[in-house]
Amino acid sequence: MKRSDKIIKRLFDIIVSSIGLLLVGWIIIIAAIIARFDTKLSGFFKQKRVGQHGKIFKVLKLRSMKNVEGINTTVSTIKDPRITKIGNFWRRSKIDELPQLINVFLGDMSLVGPRPDVQGFADQLEGEDRIILTIKPGITGPASIFFKDEENLLANQDNPEVYNKEVIWPKKVEINKAYIQNYSFFKDIKYIIKTFF
């Protein structure tokens, strides 16, 4: 990706995230209040993720889980008993992702790019795979679209953690590398449209 591509991409992110926050900011605020009463915790969920150049940042989401003691969680969260009914709606409708417009505006994320991963994945990339860390992670992207039913896919595996590590993760790396190596601003527009439709 050329320097000029990164500049255009950042300007686009600032403009669209600003407009997006003006349009849906009220939805984020109302949803966060509902999530606060629904989960008895903060309406926003912050989690450390690996960003550009391996920098750790906190990704923002609407909280969709309550505290349930004694739960042994796995990669698959679709049947996680901590997810509330309202939280399930946030996830299915992708409303829980809206606060990430703040991450985009602040410069931690981009609208389009590899999804930000927890430590133990992106920060462990080696060789030419580390090209993925040269750009900001995105709210959506080609790998996110390809694995749009990832939670269902993992829920149907005998060992979701192994399947994620040995099948899904390598495929995501392959897709994200191709995205960066063949970057086009107009492809970003296409991915945004595909995400909505």
Uncertain parts: none
Structural class: mainly alpha
For the largest beta-sheet, the strand count, sense and barrel status come to: 2 strands, antiparallel
> Which strand order does the major sheet show?
1-2
Helix content: 40-55%
Mean pLDDT over all positions: 90
What sort of overall outline do the alpha carbons produce when their principal axes are compared?
globular
Q: Using the CA coordinates, give the radius of gyration.
A: 17 Å
Count every beta strand, where a strand is a DSSP E run of 2 or more residues: 4
N-to-C SSE series? Answer: HEEHHEEHHHH
What distance separates the N and C termini?
Answer: 27 Å
- Helix segment count? 7
Percent in strands = 5-15%
> How many domains make up the coordinates?
1
Question: Could you characterize the architecture of this molecule?
Answer:
- With 197 residues, this protein is mainly alpha-helical.
- It has one domain (3-196).
- Helices cover 50% and strands 10% of the residues.
- The chain is built from seven helices and four strands.
- It has helices at residues 3-39, 85-93, 100-106, 142-146, 150-155, 160-181, 185-196; strands spanning 44-50, 56-62, 110-112, 138-140.
- It has a two-stranded antiparallel ribbon.
- A hairpin with a 5-residue loop joins strand 1 and strand 2.
- Helix 1 packs antiparallel against helix 3.
- The longest helix has 37 residues, at 3-39.
- It is globular.
- The chain starts with a helix and ends with a helix.
- The mean pLDDT is 90.
- It comes from Olleya aquimaris.
- Residues 9-196 form the Bacterial sugar transferase domain.
